[in-house]
Write a structure and sequence with these properties.
This is Bifunctional protein FolD. Catalyzes the oxidation of 5,10-methylenetetrahydrofolate to 5,10-methenyltetrahydrofolate and then the hydrolysis of 5,10-methenyltetrahydrofolate to 10-formyltetrahydrofolate. Homodimer. One of its GO terms (cellular component) is cytosol. The chain is α/β, with parallel strands linked by helices. The chain contains ten helices and eleven strands. It has helices at about 5-25, 45-60, 75-85, 105-110, 125-130, 140-150, 170-180, 195-200, 245-250, 260-280; strands spanning about 5, 35-40, 60-70, 90-95, 160-165, 185-190, 205, 225-230, 230-235, 240, 255. The strands form three sheets. Strands 1-11-8-7-5-6 form a six-stranded parallel β-sheet. Helix 1 (about 5-25) runs parallel beside helix 10 (about 260-280), helix 2 packs across helix 10 (about 260-280) and helix 6 crosses helix 7 (about 170-180). The chain is globular, with a radius of gyration of 19 Å. The chain binds 5,10-Methenyltetrahydrofolate. 5,10-Methenyltetrahydrofolate binds near residues 48, 96, 140 and 258. 5,10-Methenyltetrahydrofolate binds near residues 97, 119 and 258.
Length: about 280
Amino acid sequence: MGQILDGKIVAASLKEETAAEANKLRDNGVIPKLTIVRVGANPSDLSYERGALKRMEGCNIATEVKELPEDINQEDFIKALKEVNDDKTTHGILLFRPLPKQLDEEVIKYVIAPEKDVDCLSPTNVAKVMEGDKSGFAPCTPTAVMETLKYYNVDLKGAETVVLGRSMVVGKPVSMLLLGENATVTICHSRTKDLSSVTSKADVLVVGIGRAKMVTSEYVKEGAIVVDVGINVDENGKLCGDVDFDQCIEKASLITPVPGGVGSVTTSVLAKHVIKACKLQS
Ligand SMILES: Nc1nc(=O)c2c([nH]1)NC[C@@H]1CN(c3ccc(C(=O)N[C@@H](CCC(=O)O)C(=O)O)cc3)C=[N+]21
């Protein structure tokens, strides 16, 4: 029976450091601020927004929510985003994704100011993640995976790591971050042949595939470390991950729960990124 990797402890530790930094900035007359740009009122955006606002408050970071109409056109959206870019009191910008279909993310990603882009929408920041250049902002969720492994002293050097999922918000960036720590990285996905034979080679298995409880015990090697990035709602309306926790904890040495795992670390990383952005700008 494995041990639980407790995201709440990791989040609290990061929060403490970040709050101290925020207070130092405030002592010098700078108020770090995150502006959230939300189009419409999507429930999953609102759920993340609640958590993010609460975390910023706990870190003494100021916030503003710029709510834009669901049917806003591309031109008006870009104008609104440029206003936030130009707002001297805003250091970090979180733009919820995916955007409604009339808005073209392929265009908009070039508009957000890279130095305020705390969740890695801008191609400038994506490139830095690829290059292993730590001066930019990696997306918060993959960074939360790395912070969790670091807090628990997981040695990634030369480790056999498998990432299940290839999205731009989890799979691809987390693979680059793992590579940056000298892990051996295999990326697999829904089209991978004999998926469970690939994932069961992993010493460290990171799962972000977006399918509730898909990873059952045959996907996991005895003694593996399992990190579950999924946030789904199960048949009883409860939050659950992409990993079948009750099955996999029997085989894993360490495993993150949902809720209370990586998801709880993400907003602390967001706060840390706002402070980093603030320091770069002041
Ligand atoms: N640029 C961008 N970045 C995002 O990270 C992003 C986004 N856009 N758009 C919306 C989705 C949705 N999302 C959620 C995160 C946590 C919970 C959630 O339920 N969190 C639990 C904790 C979960 C846990 O403890 O594992 C809570 O706050 O209580 C929900 C939704 C982020 N998103």
